[in-house]
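Pair request: fold both.
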Amino acid sequence: MWRYDIEAKAVDGELGRVRRENETLYAVIKTVSSSLDLDRVLGGIVEIATDATACHACFIYFVEGRRLVLRAASPRYADLVGTLELALDEGLTGWVARTRQPEFIRENALQDPRMKYVPELEEERFQSMVAVPLLSKAGATRGVVVLHTEAPREFDDGVLNFLVHTASLAAGAIENAELYEETRRRVDALTTLTRLSQALAAVTLREDLYEAVTRGARELVGADSCQIWRLDHQADELVLAAADPAETSGAGPRPGRAALLLELLGGERAGTLRREIAADERLLAAPLTAGDERLGLLCCTVVGGRAFSEDEAGLLSAVANQTAVGLKKAELIERLTAENTVKDMFEALAAGSVETAEAKAADARCDLGLPHVFLHVEREPGESAAPPWPELTARIEVRLRRRYRRVLFDARHDELRALVPLAGNDAAAVEELRRACDELAAEHGVEIGLSGAERGGQSARRRMREAADAARIGRSLTAGGGAVSYEQLGAYRYLVNLELDDPPRDRYGQAVEVLIDYDRDKSAQLVETLEGYLAARCSVAASARALYIHPNTVRQRLERIARITGLDLAEEDLLSLELALKVARLHRLRARS
């Protein structure tokens, strides 16, 4: 009977222990399934494990890289969470993480060779210690649960089994919570990206775009700073366009960073660059490309041990693509706005509205008070040779802007007007501009007329007409395209605006018509020679120098002119002959137009 009572009590004790263990496991299950908030789950596990095992302190470490980081602890040590770290090869905690086996020390824990003394944990107060690994479904160590007691204690198999089960449930809860956190982060990131995309779509000014991108991208990837670098194609270098925070905008790139950014631009357009650029700084950069055009880079930096993830690289790449599109849109709007402003300026100058023109010029960042020259570009009417006129004017604009960066253009369906600010001596600057235009005009088969160089807008209307007259008359003076300044027109300046529908039909006019027809049929240059001879005051040597031919060639052509026309140049009214020649050329030019 006595023996029966002892056995019954033993059974009752075992049943009670099992019942308590089950109740504790149910509590653990309830805790891990009650929330997806990782910190709340870890706090609940610490509390349950401490109560169930009658321990004095409980710690939960997570494996992060090659370190064990404290993620949860008993209230007494809660301030150490997130700051206390151990290497994987340190202490019993590291041993359990490496071996993935539970282990306990019954007494004199600090005497164990595997122990590492951590002053912050007051480990001199504890005698016993047990550590259980948190294993993922794949068997990898996710962390370690550590319990301490102040008095020596023998952890039996039941306690160890309970801790192993608890660790298994906790590991699953941690994976679920991390999956939830990752999903929530992705949803938040996509939501932030959507808001940023909407903001970028609404921006029309480049400065506003810079501000929205740098601030939004920095927040999106959790960076400490964000910069936009624009590529200067002429200098082949990167220029800092904007930064957030703003105080970083004045700082140049650290040594080696510019080379890294240029390295990225030289690589795959769709790729991103993740690189450690200093001991405590990491870089994430994505190229800004629109089609085949390289615009620059979008860069984020973070200080500290955190590295950018693949997801963050993808997000920055998406922002960079939208930024490139936004930049092209903003630049297009700016260019169209600038073109309209310049067009309005030319129209105001042509109408004589000086005040309006000066205001439009100021908007276009042009100072009419500085010396400048008007250009007028056109080609032979009815000319259908390639390229089309819009493409041709675009080429001319690009070439002129390379030499005169502040030139303003007004392109029309059949002509191109331009205002070129000058620097230095007016006469020398005009001649330099004329030579550049002559080379350009000959290359593209167009006529370019240049006005005189003056300041202010009062005379602009007259000078625009001068440039147009020079271009129009230049078509009869140059073959295959060229540039003519208004000063080079000579007597043509007095005839160009006269009514020439019915020129005089005297002997000089008839002689000139015969010469023009002869040149057209024989591909001779008698008209040009005669005009040069008369302009040189009948000097054979001077006309030869002006025409770049030998004096004997001039004499031979003059003899042929006399035979064809019957004129004796030594006896004729040379002023009437010169006027008849210029009138005939202008009349034919107008008829052809």
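--- second member of the pair ---
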Amino acid sequence: MIGKIISHYKILEKLGEGGMGVVYKAEDLKLKRTVTLKFLPPELTRDPEAKERFVHEAQAASALQHNNICTIHEIDETDDSQMIICMDYYTGETIKEKIEQGLLNIEEAIDIAVQVAQGLAKAHRRGIIHRDIKPANIMITDDGVVKILDFGLAKLAGQVGITKTGVRMGTVAYMSPEQARGEAVDHRTDIWSLGVVLYEMLTGQIPFKGEYEQAVVYSILNEESVSPSSIRKDTPKLFEQIVSKCLEKDPAMRYQNMQEVLEELKKPVVSAAISRIQKKSIAVLSFTNMSADPEQEYFCDGMAEEIINALTHIESLKVIARTSAFAFKGKHEDVRKIGKKLNVETLLEGSVRKAGNRLRITAQLVKVCDGSHFWSERYDRDMEDVFAIQDEISLAIVDKLKGRLLGEEKAALVKRYTENLEAYNLYLKGNYFSQMWTVEGFEKAIECLEQALQKDPNYALAYAGIAYVYFFRAFFGNFPPKEAIPKAKTYLKKALDIDENLAEAHALLGKIRTMYDWNWVLAEQELKLALELNPNSSIIHLHYCDFLSVTGQHEEAIIEVKRARELDPLSININANVGERMYFAGQFDRAIEDLQKTIAMDRNWFYSHLLLGLSYLGKSMLKESIVELEKASDLSGGAPLVVVMLASTYYRTGKKTEAEKLFNSLKERAKDEYIPPSFLFVIHKVRGDMELAFKWLERACEDRDIYLPYYLLPQPEDHLIIPYDKKSTELLRKVGLIK
């Protein structure tokens, strides 16, 4: 079809396909404009009477002129009698695509709800029902305007539509009870569907679920949905009440018209949320090193990262995390493409030239929509002024983005953790090395951070930085937890003694309470405090989702990890973690789909292949599982965690020779390097050596093995779970892992 001319339209590209037809981008050759063409399935208009009714309904829908409704220009018929609808063409994304990227913030969800309700209210006043309101049929243009799509297939109220009573038409998950039963519907079916969309925008999930279509219908007709606030704590009570009333199963108990919904949305409490300044978004790119010395890279990265860390304290500002923002370093990619990939409206670019004690720093804010600069500044200063420069840049960003700066936010924005320039430089170096995630990098990081503390013994960030290094040395399995974690705790205590509001320190303490202390109450307290102190930190959201998974709160964990991904969309680790949370929840199909997308981003990250292999195992797809686990083993260089999972799968699939070879290699390695005892517990359990397995379980409890809580996750019977025999249960209860 591409390049073909139909009527006076030239087909440019295919945009999508569904049950209601195929959609193309096209050029209107008469008016020289870009349009959208939808080709309807022949069965919809094969009957002459049905075609006449459709034309009448489409004419009525095309008469709708409203800012929130996709404009229909005309309907036409091809030479082979296929009906086409010509509509406006928009660039942007659907609500479905936005939800897949992560939860919408409350203000954005309310704003979308208002715009959709306005469009539907206009249609209902003209007697037109949409009948298929769903996230895929609602688009947000690049200008932030909500457009309701597919009104060309609406049913004119009071007439017999394209489908007759007793036949369901639409998308099952968003159907009202009366529509699901195949009964005649009125405008209140759109009110129900809008309620479902609002629920999904708030929670990331639909209110009525089922493994197959009829199960979803049963849920719609007979079950009550879980309240949005039980899934998302910050849901405004009034907004939740609006959703609840939209989802009344009896149409008579719902809002009786869309104007009522609008009035509720505009009540003072919700209106205040809508009227807040919309959350601005920014990515601070790695500053370019203009110095002759390539070793100054750490200083350039550190400058940008310090600005990122400062900006995360501004509640009204969405700040992309370091991993994603720095992913474009040295690639010279167009700023508009970068902005689209990161889903932000503004970028900060900068460069640093350092010569002796003199600095020349340039910074400019760029609009993603058109690539234009709307603020720039050059700073020619002495090195001692570096802190003031960072403050000036951060304050200028907030000012130019017209963000509201509360008193405590400004204090956090310009807070200096040290006045000692040498300590600051050493901290930047330590942070640079720790980001390498290698044994050598961790050792260099500790060396630099210890030197920073010698220069400034009150440098809270340096204490917290060392704590993170020790924790992750233990987590990656090359350092005994009973040696690493107490050291991490000591440094965290010093950091918090100096600054009790250091969010990252509270977050790591919450992670340690979860994975090492096995104290869920204290873990949750620390993690929630960390989120209050810095809600824009992707790492804190990631730590919190770990706690939620370990404590069996799987849906909440998925929501939380998607929040982390929204803040750090290009982080391979966070993207893999989304699939991991779905795997832990036993949602193997979703995990497989998500992990395949992650692997497409980076085919060399072993952890994605490991998780995909385990997800295939969950579906008993043994051949596919082994392929992915073998890839993970090769890419990781035989990481102990991967070896354990691959060997266990070999045992289960009858490949005993291959399994024993890996098992023996792991035992040999254990003579010279630390192998978490839980790994050996798993292999002995799969081999059927239950007595030896229990001994390794005892050792894991004694060592405070930080992998142990993962094996307690509720999973299907054929997965790696600790057997709840009396002996194991008593041991796990004794150490506090189970109640």
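Observation on the second member. The chain is about 55% helix and 15% strand.
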